[in-house]
Amino acid sequence: MSSTASQPVLSQVPDALGHFGPYGGTFVPETLVFALRQLTDEYQRAKADPAFQQEFDFYLREYVGRPSRLYHARRLSEHLGGAKIYLKREDLNHTGAHKINNAIGQALLTKRMGKKRVIAETGAGQHGVATATVAALFDLECDVYMGAEDVRRQALNVFRMRLMNARVVEVHSGLKTLKDALNEALRDWMGSVENTHYIIGSVAGPHPFPMMVRDFQACIGRETRQQCLEAEQRLPDAVIACVGGGSNAAGIFYPFIDDTSVRLIGVEPGGRSARLGDHAATLTYGQPGVLHGALSYVLQDEDGQTADVHSVSAGLDYPGVGPEHAYWKDSKRVEYTTVTDEEALEAFEMLARTEGIIPALESAHAIAKVARLAPQMGKDKVIVVNLSGRGDKDCQEVARLLENARG
Amino acid sequence: MGIAAASESRVARAFAPLRARGQAGLVPFLPAGYPDLATTQSCLLAAQRAGATVIEVGIPFSDPIADGPVIQQAFAHALQQRIRLADIFAAIGEIRSQLTVPVMAMVTYSIVYRIGLERFAEQAREAGLSGVILPDVPPPEAQDICHRFWESGLDTTLLIAPTTSPQRRGEIADLCSGFIYYLSVSGITGERTALPADLASNLKQIRQLTDKPLAVGFGISTAAHVRQLRGHADAAIVGSAIVRRMRDAAQKNAVISDVVESYCQELAEGGREA
Description:
Largest sheet of chain A: 6 strands, mixed
Oligomer: heterodimer
Number of helices of chain A: 16
Helix content of chain A: 40-55%
Largest sheet of chain B: 9 strands, parallel
Number of strands of chain B: 9
Largest interface: A-B, 35 and 41 residues
Shape of chain B: globular
Distance between the termini of chain B: 37 Å
Helix content of chain B: 40-55%
C-alpha cells in the first residue's frame, strides 16, 4: 500500500480522479456521481475565475474577519520552558472555528450551481453552525444532520443553528454521533441531488471534497507562513494541528508541504486507551479501508464493519480520516501521534490559565502535544499550533467531566 | 472484456428464457442473518420455489448509505447477533447443492477491500455464489475491480441511476457481466406507491445500448409493479417490501420462509401473466 517510491512533489495531488497516491477516489452509489461530477466541474471553473476568488476573499475578510492572528503565546511558552509558541487564532473567526472558511466557499459554489438548499453533517456542531450561518447569509434552505448523542452534548450549538433558521435533524442510528450523521446526510443527498448541495465539513468523503475543502482551508496555512516570516524572518520549526477528519490540519499543513524543513505533526484523539473502541486515532491505530466514499485509513473490525470510536471531543469522534492525510502518513511527510482525553483536558485548563484563552476540546489535543514537545526544544525554536476553535461550546461538558474526576 | 462474456455467465443464462417469452422475472433481496442464518437458508429455498430468477443476498454492513430504514434495521439486527461474513458463506455453502437459482451477494466495497478482493471472491465461490452486486463502486473505480472479479470467476452487477449520463450508461453496461441493475428512482431503498413516469423511456434507452439482462430495483413492492415492467425490463428487484414482511412475520411468530414464499409467488406471477 505504501509504494509511493518516486513521488516527486507531494503537493501536486490529487489527480483528476481524486487519487492521493493510492488513496481517495469515488466509492459512492451511482446516484451521487452526477452531483459529484457537476461539483468538480463547477469548482474547477470557479477556481479559475478571478471573480469567484475575489468574492471568496471578500467574505473571508469582511465577514469571517481574516486574516486570523498569529499570536505569540508568551506565558504559555515560559510556562513550558522551551520553544517559542505561536497560536494561529482560528478561534477568533466569526462563529468561533475554522469551519466557516470552507462553508463560505461551498455556499458560493452552491449559488453558482443554482441550487437552493444545503445540507450538512455535524459532530461538535461547529460545522453545522458554520453551514447554518452561510445559509442565513446567502438565503439558502438548510438541514443539518446531527447524532442524537451529540445533540445532547452540544446543546448550545443546536440552539445557535435553530436560531439561524436551520433545521437540526437528530440521527438515532448507530452510535448516534458524527459517522451516523454523515450516513444520514448522504441518504438525504441521494434523493435530493438535483436541487441540494451537500456541504461536507471535512477533507473526507468522495472526490472532489478532500481537495476542495483542503483548498478552502489552505488560507490558514498561507497566512501562517507569511505571518511567521514577518514575525520571525523564517519559517517555523514545527506546525501542530489536531486531526479528526482532518480539515484544520490539512488547511494549515498544505502550504508547508514542500517546505521540508518544517516538521508537521497531526494529533489524533487517543481517548481512553489504545484498545479498538476506546479512541478515534484512525491513522495511528487503523489501516487502509473504504468509508464514506473514499479509500483512506479507517477503524474497522476484521470483517470491514466500522468500529465504534470514542473521544472526549465530539468533533474528533470519527472512525475515518481524509485520504490526503493517509498519503502524507505513508510518505512520512507528516508525523501523526495521539493525545489522551485526560491530556487534552489538562491542556484545556492550561491554556485558559496561562493565556486567558479557552480552546475547543479538539484544539486542546494540539495544545497537549505542544506541552510535550516544547520543553524538548531550545528557546530559539518556533512552534505554531493551530487553535482551530474556541471552547465555549465545551464548557458545560468539561465542567461535568472535571466534577466527576475530582468530585 | 473477454474474460466473462455474457453468454458464459450463469446469471445471464438464468435471464435468457424470460425475454423470449416476454416475461419479467423476479430478483428477491434477502438480508443475510436476518433474523438468523437458518432463516436465510430457508428463505433462499423458499424464494427459489416461488420462481425467483436470481436471488440477491445482502451482506450486512454497519454503514449502508444507500439503504432506507427497513434494510438498515435488518442489517443492524444481524450485526448485533455478531453474524460474521464467514458464517454467512458457511450457511449458504451448506445448502448450495439444493440451490439451482444463481445467488449473488450485494456487498459494499468496504467489506470486499478489507477481506481482500481475491480472498473474498474465493470464499464466495466456495459457498456457491455466482457473483456480486456492487452498490458503491462506480466507474472509473469499477474498471479494475470488475476485471479482478471476473478473473476470480464471479459475475458483476453495477447500478445505473436516473441521473447517469448516456455515455456512463454504456460504460457501466460494459462492466456488468451478470445483469444491469437500473435504479427506478434517485434516493435510497424503500417502498414507493407508484413507479416513476420516466421509467419506460429510461429502460428503452438502456436497451438500445445493450442486450444484457436488465433488472429494475428501488420502490417495487406489488405484482402490478412487476407486471408493468414486462416488455421494458427482464426482471424486478424487490428488497424492502420483502424485508418488512419478514419483520412482521417474526413479530407474529409466523414462519418467515412461508411468508417470503407466498409473497414472491405473487410477485413472480405478476411478471408472467398476460
